[in-house]
Design goal:
Radius of gyration: 17 Å
Distance between the termini: 28 Å
Shape: globular
Number of strands: 3
Helix content: 10-25%
Structural class: alpha/beta
Strand order of the largest sheet: 1-2-3
C-alpha cells in the first residue's frame, strides 16, 4: 500500500447482507481485516440510491460502519445539481460525504454484475472512448482477469 496512491479491493454484492456477514470475507471482512476505508457505490439507474446508501450503513455492525468513508453514485443521467440536495441530506444523516457522481455511459461492453445479459455488446476496446466531461477527469481501468466471475 505504501507504493501506490490507492489500492482498490472490489467487494461482491452488498456489504450489508446481514444473513451472510458471519462468513463474508470479500466485503467488510477484508476491509476490517486490513483496516481499509470503504467507499459504497450505488447504482442510481435502478432507483432508490439514497435509501440504498442509508440502509447499507444502518445495517452494518458499528465496527464496519466506522470503515465507511463515503459514497459514490454510479450511472447518473442528467443534471448533477439535481442530486446535490439529496447528497447533502445523506451527509447529514450518515456523517459521510459523496465523493462523486459517475455518468451513465452507453456501449461500455461491461456486463451487469449477476444480471441478465440482454444484448451482445462489443468489447471495451471496440466502444469509442467518450470525450472528457470537463477539466476534472477520472480515468477508470478494468483489468481483464480470465478467471473472475462475470467476465466479459
Amino acid at each position: 500500500r505504501a507504493s501506490y496512491d490507492a489500492v482498490i479491493c472490489e467487494g461482491a454484492g452488498s456489504p450489508a447482507e446481514i444473513n451472510l456477514r458471519r462468513t463474508d470475507i470479500v466485503n467488510m471482512g477484508i476491509a476490517r481485516g486490513a483496516g481499509l476505508p470503504v467507499l459504497v457505490v450505488g447504482d442510481i439507474d435502478r432507483g432508490g440510491v439514497f435509501a440504498s446508501f442509508f440502509g447499507t450503513v444502518a445495517l452494518l455492525a458499528p465496527e464496519d460502519q466506522a470503515l465507511v468513508a463515503g459514497f459514490l453514485v454510479n450511472k447518473f443521467r442528467g443534471d448533477v445539481s439535481l442530486l446535490e440536495p439529496g447528497l447533502e441530506m445523506l451527509r447529514g444523516l450518515t456523517g459521510r460525504r459523496a465523493y462523486g457522481v459517475l455518468p451513465y455511459r452507453h456501449g461500455l461492453g461491461i456486463d451487469e454484475e449477476d444480471g441478465l445479459r440482454v444484448s451482445l455488446r462489443g468489447s471495451v476496446r471496440e466502444s469509442a472512448v467518450a470525450p472528457p466531461l470537463g477539466e476534472d477527469v477520472l480515468r477508470i481501468a478494468v483489468c481483464a482477469v480470465p478467471l473472475m466471475s462475470n467476465f466479459t
